[in-house]
Structure formats: C-alpha cells, structure tokens
C-alpha cells in the first residue's frame, strides 16, 4: 500500500510520462463511450422529437416509461445484456460477450433513454413556439422533427454531453459484460476499482484525475453551450 503523497506523485508521473498502459485504458474508455454516445443520439434524438410532434393514445404512458428508464440500475442493464449475449442467450452465436462491442451495447442501452427523455424536454419548448407555423405551412411530421432537431442543436449538444458524462463514468454494466480484461476490455472506471483493490493507488489516482478532468470539461462545455443557446434564442 502506497502512502498518500507517494501515490499522488506516482499518479502525476504516470500522466506526465504518457504511460502506455494508462493511456491505453483511457483510449478504450473514450472509444467505447463515444461510440455508445453516437448510437444513443441516433436513437434518442428521433424518439424525443417524435414524442413532441406526434400526439397519440398512450403518449403520456410512453413518456413516463422513457423518463423512468433514465433511472434504470446499470447493473440490471449489464445483466440483461449479459443474458442476451451469453452462450445460452438469443445473441450468443455472435460471440460478443467480454468484448468492447458488448460494453458499447450496454452503455447505449443505458444512456439512450436519458438522451431521449432530455431531448424531448428540450424540443418541447421549441414545438410550442413553432406549432402554429408548422400547421399553417402544412409541414409533415418528419420535416417538423428535422426542423426541431436542427434548431435545437445547441440544447441537444448539452443533452449529448450529459449522456457522455453518464457513459464514461459507468462501471456496473461494463464490468459485467466486459469482464475487465487487461488490454481488451479494461476501461477507466473498472481499472480504478481493480487497482484500488490491489493497492496500486498511483495508477488508480492517475485514472481518477483524468476522469475528473473529463467530468469538469463536460460540465464546462455544457455551460458554454447553454450560454450560446440562450444568446441564439434572443438574437
């Protein structure tokens, strides 16, 4: 077990020296989380826009369901993906369990409801503003959805950043479906848990510092985008 000062000193040395193992873990984390974010936005933005422009029976129930899915426990998502991808599962023949692809699937299922729910809230305000104009011009639902997404792009970027922050900090689901395998599926959160249990606090702190810097950067970017969106709205 390293002492407190020594652990911090080693952590900064690992970061400053560009340690290969450290940045391999960071690189995999970014690749998995950014891919899951892209897929989640491709799924969540259209769903959010559809829930805004389409009025149908049971819409309130669907919205409540999407909102409730934002709070799904990550370990439950991981368990469901594990069961689907295991040898006995319906997708076991793909051989994806304990791979980065399995981790991407789990993170996508975890953050897609968040993106869908938050994007609906962002786009609903725009729909209230544009609804009369859309009706007078006879705009189709698909065109209205596209117009809302384009015009609400700054707000939706903030939603995407929130989804990324949730994805990159996830540990429960990815460790179940990824297995935390060295040089294959070890990401920042799972590596921090492992290195801490081993007593290698230097590596754990180095990863924690990078993860905290990412979280702060995401929050700053979200704040900047909100400010841009407000200026754009009153321009």
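-> sequence recovered:
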């Amino acid at each position: 077990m390293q002492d407190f000062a020594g652990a911090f000193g080693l952590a900064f040395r690992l970061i400053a020296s560009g340690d290969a193992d450290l940045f391999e873990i960071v690189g995999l984390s970014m690749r998995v989380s950014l891919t899951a974010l892209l897929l989640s936005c491709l799924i969540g933005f259209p769903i959010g826009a559809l829930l805004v422009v389409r009025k149908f029976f049971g819409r309130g129930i669907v919205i409540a369901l999407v909102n409730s899915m934002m709070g799904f426990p990550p370990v439950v998502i991981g368990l469901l993906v594990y069961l689907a991808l295991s040898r006995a599962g319906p997708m076991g023949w793909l051989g994806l369990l304990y791979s980065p692809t399995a981790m991407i699937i789990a993170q996508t299922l975890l953050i897609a409801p968040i993106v869908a729910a938050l994007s609906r809230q962002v786009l609903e305000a725009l729909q209230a503003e544009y609804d009369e104009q859309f009706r007078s011009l006879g705009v189709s639902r698909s065109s209205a959805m596209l117009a809302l997404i384009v015009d609400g792009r700054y707000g939706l970027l903030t939603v995407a950043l929130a989804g990324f922050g949730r994805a990159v900090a996830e540990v429960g689901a990815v460790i179940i479906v990824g297995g935390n395998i060295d040089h294959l599926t070890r990401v920042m959160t799972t590596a921090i848990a492992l290195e801490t249990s081993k007593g290698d606090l230097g590596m754990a702190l180095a990863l924690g510092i990078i993860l905290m810097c990412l979280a702060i950067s995401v929050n700053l970017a979200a704040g900047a985008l909100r400010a841009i969106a407000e200026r754009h709205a009153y321009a």
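The chain is about 80% helix and 0% strand.
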